[in-house]
């Protein structure tokens, strides 16, 4: 079953704010831990690889912070492209996502 196909079971249409905040906090803490580990990596680690990984983690952290702002603004869980609700299953997997699956496919 794909993420943009509704499941037959009854699920809430939106992820509750407290659950969204918990998932986002977990994502933030995970990324910050990854950043600290990379910064503490020894000289044996290739600098370019570390720089790319840090950049990726910082971009995800920016997405997480933007998602916190959407929770505060009341826009969390709505696609920034089509404004339709993002399926709860997608938010459970990727709590900082900005797009529903069909719109994400269009941006890639």
| Poorly predicted segments | none
Shape: elongated
Question: With helices defined by DSSP (H or I, 4 residues minimum), what is the helix count?
Answer: 4
The percent range for helix content is: 55-70%
Instruction: Report the sheet-strand fraction.
Output: under 5%
Task: Give the end-to-end Cα distance, rounded to a whole number of Å.
Answer: 21 Å
Radius of gyration: 16 Å
How do the strands and helices of this protein lay out in sequence?
Elements: H1 17-39, H2 47-73, H3 88-93, H4 101-107
Helix pairs in contact: 1-2
Describe the structure in your own words:
With 108 residues, the protein is mainly alpha-helical. It has helices at residues 17-39, 47-73, 88-93, 101-107. It is elongated and about 50 Å long. The mean pLDDT is 85.
Give the gist of this structure:
By secondary structure, the chain is mainly α.
Question: What keywords describe this structure?
Answer:
mainly alpha, 108 residues
């Amino acid at each position: 079953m794909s993420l943009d196909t509704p499941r037959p079971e009854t699920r809430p249409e939106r992820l509750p704010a407290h659950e969204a905040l918990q998932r986002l906090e977990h994502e933030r803490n995970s990324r910050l831990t990854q950043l600290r580990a990379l910064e503490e990596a020894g000289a044996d680690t290739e600098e370019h690889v570390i720089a790319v990984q840090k950049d990726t983690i910082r971009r995800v952290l920016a997405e997480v912070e933007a998602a916190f702002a959407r929770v505060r603004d009341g826009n969390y869980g709505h696609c920034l492209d089509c404004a339709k609700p993002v399926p709860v299953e997608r938010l459970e997997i990727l709590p900082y996502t900005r797009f529903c699956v069909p719109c994400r496919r269009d941006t890639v």
